[in-house]
Design goal:
Layout lengths: L2 H7 L12 E2 L9 E9 L3 E7 L10 E7 L2 E4 L2 E4 L5 E7 L5 E9 L2 E9 L5 E8 L1 E5 L2 E4 L7 E7 L5 E6 L6 E8 L4 E9 L1 E4 L2 E4 L7 E9 L5 E5 L3 E2 L4 H4 L4 E4 L5 E7 L3 E2 L5 E2 L6 E7 L5 E7 L5 E8 L5 E7 L3 E3 L2 E3 L6 E7 L5 E7 L6 E7 L5 E7 L2 E4 L2 E4 L5 E7 L5 E7 L6 E7 L5 E7 L3 E3 L2 E3 L6 E7 L6 E2 L2 E2 L4 E2 L6 E4 L7 E5 L5 E6 L5 E3 L6 E8 L5 E8 L1
Parallel strand pairs: 46-53
Antiparallel strand pairs: 1-45, 2-5, 2-44, 3-4, 4-7, 5-6, 7-8, 8-11, 9-10, 10-13, 11-12, 13-14, 15-16, 16-19, 17-18, 19-20, 21-24, 22-23, 23-26, 24-25, 26-27, 28-29, 29-32, 30-31, 32-33, 34-35, 35-38, 36-37, 38-39, 40-41, 41-44, 42-43, 47-48, 48-51, 49-50, 49-52, 52-53
Amino acid sequence: MNTPTLARRLTAPLTSLLLAAATATSAQPTPSWTNVRAISAGPNLLTQAGAHISATQADGTFYAVGSFTGTTSVGGNPLVAKGSSDGYVAKYTAEGNVLWVRQLGSTERGEVNAVALDAAGNVYITGQFSGTLTLGGGLVVQGLRVPAFNAFCIRYSPQGTPQWARHNTNDNGAWGSGIAVEANGQVSVAGVFAWSITLGGTTLATPFSTDNFTAYLARFNAETGALESLTAPFAYTGGNIYSTLTGPLMAASAGGRVYLLSNFESPLLLPGGARLTGAGNLDAGVLAYAANGRLEWARQLGSPQRDEVAQGATDAAGNLYVVGYSLGSVRAGLFTLPNNGGSDGYLLKYDLSGEVQWAQMVNSPGNDQLRSVAVDAAGAPYVTGSFEQTLTIGTQRLTSTGQSDVLVAAYSPTGQPRWAQQAGGPGPDYGSYLGLGFNNSLNLVGSYSAPATFGQQVLTTPAPNGTFMALLGSAVLSTSAARPLALGLAPNPATGRVRLLGLPAGRPISVFDQLGRLVRTAPLAPDASFSVHGLTPGLYVVRAVDAQNRAYAGRLVVE
């Protein structure tokens, strides 16, 4: 970590480092598109996945990953596949300028499926490959030959240097589908294996009575890549498994809880002999696991038609927000979500016990989908996807300008619509991934067909399967002003204990990482200090409340 740089940034006036400490209830105006540009293009781009997460300096830096065949371009950088397909990971500035691109060149086949970021700006990716995989920096990984796959987890530094790589070393096929960085310094990877998987010298055979595929959950030490645990959370059964099986997605929360989200056609086998049985064509499973790998609860989401889960995200309290789309009338807990024609998007909030607290639909008469969700520190969710024809969200009525338009919508912590925004042109356009940016903005990645209009800006570059990056300014839930921590946080950077001068002993403090996750709560000691021992080096936000219930906030570097 480049601590001197962070420290220099933190020598600016403390008031420039304040974060919001209390939310306002008044509605916000619809934010405007402030920046948009094409970041990758080419008919051979197979998939585009990404995570829009502010990097260590909260400067809006983000990563995107994907795979391609033949030749393509990422951020103006031409890429030529070494085998039938290659993967890549790219880092961008908030304005969409590429900082670096790393190609994962496989002699046979390689794909990158998911990406995560830690508080220090290191990036972690997962996916699968066969043959020999070249990562750059002299790092080469030897895997299986097709048709079998190896699952992998790789860490790159903020500068794009590969630091470690882990993959299964047995002859059975496996792949990685979901990844998350946890506050305790672990990297969790979810995926699928056949019969058994060997990682870090540990072999795990499926504990379920099935000849099909089993999900795995692997936890690695983020700094060293050492395997710390390997479990089998559930298994898939029967059906045309190759046509429907994509592997579980993942969302992590404070305290080590992990949520796995998986589409399934035939029943899912759970620990203890229980099953999730689909209601029809394709259903979604939402499962919660404790830090020790124990299944806490499992919920089914579905209808007699095809239903899919696309992504999940957690808030600081550990509640889970899930988005996806359905072709039928979906049953989710006590809620029934009616279908309005074609596919309809949904947004659900699950509490810690697995109960659905509220549900919202995106349902024009055409095809609508929600593909990504992000949650701010106030617990307000933001979603992106696409819609057709005419759509009503809250009091706003949107009409698509073509086949489908990009949709971005914001909701309150209690599920009330706040605003909605759109973009697009005559062809198909949709949002794929979004996240919280800097200066109260939302970062967005998606696909477009030129021409596509974003407010006053138009993408005109001919690009079938083109990928765009866009910013929505001042999109985060409006907040009341926070007061500066009296005399600041000292020392800053810190390695042991930190004092909050001016606040009385016993006042509670909360510490959040750069992903907005609550990582520590504690009362102030008699000397108005608290400990940062055990926190992963990086940038954090400290919040406190004085005896008059006034909110204070500031940023802290932990070395």
